[in-house]
Amino acid sequence: MTKLHPKAVYLFWWSYFWIFLFTFAFLGFFVGIWILAITESLSSLFWCGIIILVLSGVLSALWAKLMYNSYSFETTKTALNIKWGVLRKHSATIPYQRIQNIDVNRGIMARLLGISEVWIQTAGFSAALSKFGAMRFSEGMVPGLDVKEAEKLRALLLKKTKGRQGL
Predict the structure, then answer these.
(1) CB-based burial of residue 133 (10 Å sphere; 0-12 exposed, 13-18 middle, 19+ buried)?
(2) How far, in Å, CA of 1 to CA of 70, rounded?
(3) pTM of this prediction?
């Protein structure tokens, strides 16, 4: 199994940081009102905000590292296998004959980090909610690959699917 580029952990951190931050900010709002009622001091709200930021950053770093360690993929004779997940393990096997499109995507954070994502779209797969909370329109995604490695994976998958219409 092939692992992701080490910089992928930063991409995961960035995605999870916002999830943790908004979650803790929502909960912190109610805790902040309670703290303000007890202490009657605005400085306690400031420290509550600092704790939320730090807690979000630390938990995001831990979760990103766990997610990075769990993510792997391999190409076999007949399919691309992708495995990921920390608490809930996921495994996707994408047969080459079902692949219809292969995209290499680079969002803002990915460009800053010098990495790419490879999205594999197949016949009969509809849109789904991705682990990063955004709509994704592909059955398989391999995030956090070096730009050259992403292009190599795309070329390999195109070679394996050669002769299929639409590619």
Answers:
(1) exposed
(2) 11
(3) 0.79
Separation between Cα atoms, residue 57 and residue 4, nearest integer Å: 22
| CA distance linking residue 156 with residue 162, whole number of Å | 10
Element (H, E) at 91: strand 90-95
Residues 92, 76: Cα–Cα separation, whole Å: 13
Q: Count the residues in the chain.
A: 167
Token output for 107: 């969002």
Residue 34: both structure tokens together: 């309670």
What's the average pLDDT block by block, 10 residues per block, for the chain (167 residues)?
Answer: 93 94 86 77 80 94 96 94 94 91 92 94 65 60 94 94 61
- What pLDDT shows up at residue 126? 54
- What CATH architecture is 72-160? Roll (2.30)
Among 48, 59, 79, residue whose Cα is nearest residue 15: 59
